[in-house]
Specification:
Helix 1 packs across helix 2. This protein is elongated. It is an alpha/beta fold. The protein contains 9 helices and 8 strands. InterPro entries: HAD-like_hydrolase_sf, HAD-like_sf, HAD-SF_hydro_IA, HAD_sf. This is Haloacid dehalogenase. Pfam families: Hydrolase (PF00702).
């Protein structure tokens, strides 16, 4: 069943929380890095085929899903015997901002919204991506889950976040490519939940059956001079 239509009145929203990877940035970089580049480098260092490396590493990766270790570069450097931050630099040319993201961030700034980047990404990943994309100045705050000690998959994350930034859940929007993270935010009471389905430029867009879907942030921009947008009405 498709989610019910959602009317967004920007006058009723004060705070926007935005995920980074797959939401603002093309997840092609991350998918290629972890699924192709790291296994290749691991096989080169430790021996064996790339296929064998993928089988072993994918199993290790899955074991840490929904934990902070999932995105902890220091953890994976130690586990794999590789300098993960250095390897990320090797494919940094794949880091890219999704279409219409800058236009959306400019709209939010023009209308005086509080905008925060809220990500599970490790600090070293954040540094690389902010250097590469120059999107940092568009945000009032940048918070990594590693700073709070909880991943966004943990329902307690959103209350912990309120200790760092002041926001009213009923007047807050969250943009995410993860249904799990949207669900924990819904449990906390965040009202405006937007699922970004076009997480990667090289993958088929995902469609959520639980949350309002968009492919591009341009879909959230008013077109008629008002500050109201209606989504999910076919």
């Amino acid at each position: 069943m498709a989610p019910a239509p959602l009317t967004i009145d920007w006058n009723q929203i004060d705070t926007i929380l935005l995920d980074m990877d797959g939401t603002l940035l093309d997840r092609h970089f991350d998918d290629h890095f972890w699924l192709e580049h790291v296994p290749m480098r691991w096989a080169q260092k430790h021996g064996g085929s790339i296929e064998e490396a993928k089988e072993r590493l994918y199993r290790m990766f899955r074991s840490q899903e929904n934990t902070l270790n999932w995105t902890d570069l220091d953890y994976w450097s130690a586990q794999l015997g590789l300098e993960i931050p250095v390897l990320k630099e090797e494919v940094r040319h794949l880091i890219a901002v999704h279409p219409f993201v800058i236009e959306f961030l400019l709209f939010l700034r023009q209308h005086g919204k509080a905008v925060h980047l809220v990500t599970n990404a490790h600090g070293k990943t954040l540094d690389l991506k902010l250097r590469r994309t120059s999107i940092g100045p568009y945000f009032d705050g940048i918070i990594s889950a590693h700073d709070l000690g909880l991943p966004k998959e943990d329902p307690a994350f959103w209350g912990k976040l309120q200790e760092r930034i002041s926001y009213r859940a009923e007047r807050t929007m969250l943009g995410e490519d993860s249904e799990t993270n949207l669900e924990t935010a819904r449990l906390f009471g965040i009202t405006y939940l937007i699922h970004v389905g076009r997480f990667s430029s090289t993958a088929t867009p995902a469609v959520s059956e639980r949350f309002t879907n968009i492919r591009y942030f341009s879909e959230l921009l008013p077109r008629d001079g008002s500050l109201t947008v209606c989504l999910g009405q076919g």
